[in-house]
């Protein structure tokens, strides 16, 4: 979180913090709040209305798939929530599936077999022959 002060106004940056739940309505009482960026979190429910919250643009809420109400076009009360990623998922592991493990294993098996056969075709390692015999 960081804040900047300009003529008694404060800007808060809370994007990409895995914040969950509803936006507290108590934040609408903050008269000095100039900018509030809550984008790319896991927030749900209606966006509070009042004072400074009425001045925030859509960019403040981008990436929160289950937020609704103004200034967003998604109306509250509609059934069916979107997929919400779990906070334990990281960027690296989000695309790491069993298919990628199988592909990596098979590629390693093919390369290892080729290297193994070339090694014995051109020169048998002395340590290996002594170990087996």
TrEMBL record:
Principal place of residence: membrane
Source organism, top-level taxon: Eukaryota
Subcellular location: Cell membrane
Keyword Methyltransferase: no
Membrane-traversing stretches: 102-120
Gene Ontology CC: one annotated term: plasma membrane
Family membership: Belongs to the RLP family.
The protein's name in its UniProt record: Uncharacterized protein
Protein source organism: Solanum verrucosum
């Amino acid at each position: 979180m960081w804040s900047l002060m300009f003529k008694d106004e404060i800007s808060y940056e809370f994007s990409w913090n895995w914040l969950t739940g509803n936006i507290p309505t108590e934040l609408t009482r903050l008269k000095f709040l100039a900018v509030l960026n809550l984008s790319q979190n896991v927030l749900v429910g209606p966006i509070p209305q009042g004072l400074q919250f009425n001045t925030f643009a859509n960019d403040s809420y981008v990436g929160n798939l289950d937020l609704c109400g103004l200034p967003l076009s998604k109306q509250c009360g509609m059934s069916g929530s979107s997929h919400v990623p779990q906070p334990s998922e990281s960027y690296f592991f989000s695309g790491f599936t069993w298919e990628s493990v199988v592909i990596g294993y098979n590629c390693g098996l093919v390369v290892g077999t080729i290297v193994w056969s070339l090694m014995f075709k051109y020169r048998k390692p002395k340590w290996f022959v002594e170990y087996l015999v």
